[in-house]
């Protein structure tokens, strides 16, 4: 039994939230994959060694993590390229507060040993994205594409500007084609997972919940209007509604009402009036 943050703790297990591990000071100490950085890690207690219930509220703890391990904890359960090579869910040994029943610290040494088989994949991702020489390494990795990419940069920038300008366009496109869906399936799944994480945060942060709910109540009528006027694709409306409902910013009853307003033709007709009395 140890003493941590003025509270005695016992051994427990916790779930690492996808996309919930971040360096506290940006891209710091990025010279080697094993260099340790100070991180915030979002975890949810699952069990404690004494068998008593634990508080399932998501908790932010601090830990000194090697760069490669930070990448593993961030990507596992996410939808980026590295996540395809990792477990969909990571559970780790933690210290559970005897009184609060929440996570206090994670056992970095134990989780490092557990996840060592995924180190090579994480190191490769880190080298090409955040390492000190990432830019040079990427250029050397694709010498045949380098000059071609530079020659086509001006045209690429022009296309990008056009795409950005078109984001706010409303109504059907030229030629009568309606608006296209803004999301790929993997992006929708990423939005759903982040909404789950946001919902867990709302449980312990009433101020954030109030802001999220206010944003949802304000946004959804506008989405209803944009859909009914043909400014957005129906899938975009469904994604926005799903995001707020999954995070808990809207109740199921409220979501059903917004859906009815957006798709009145899909709603069942009102019951017929009662027959006149004789």
Task: Walk me through the structure.
It is built from 10 helices and 6 strands. The chain is an alpha+beta fold. Strands 1, 2, 3, 4, 5 and 6 form a 6-stranded antiparallel sheet that branches. α1 (67-75) crosses α3 (119-127), α8 packs antiparallel against α9 and α9 runs antiparallel to α10 (252-262). The radius of gyration is 24 Å and the shape is globular. 27% of the residues are buried. Mean pLDDT is 78; it is low at 1-5 and 132-176.
Summarize the structure.
By secondary structure, the chain is of the alpha+beta class. Helix content is 45%, strand content 19%. The model is unreliable at 1-5 and 132-176 (pLDDT under 50).
Shape, per Cα inertia axes: globular
Number of domains: 2
- Would you identify the regions where 5 or more consecutive residues have pLDDT less than 50? 1-5, 132-176
Secondary-structure element series: EEEEHEEHHHHHHHHH
Tally the helices.
Answer: 10
The helix fraction, in percent, is 40-55%
Which quaternary structure do these chains form?
Answer: single chain
How many angstroms separate the termini? 82 Å
Q: What does the largest sheet look like?
A: 6 strands, antiparallel
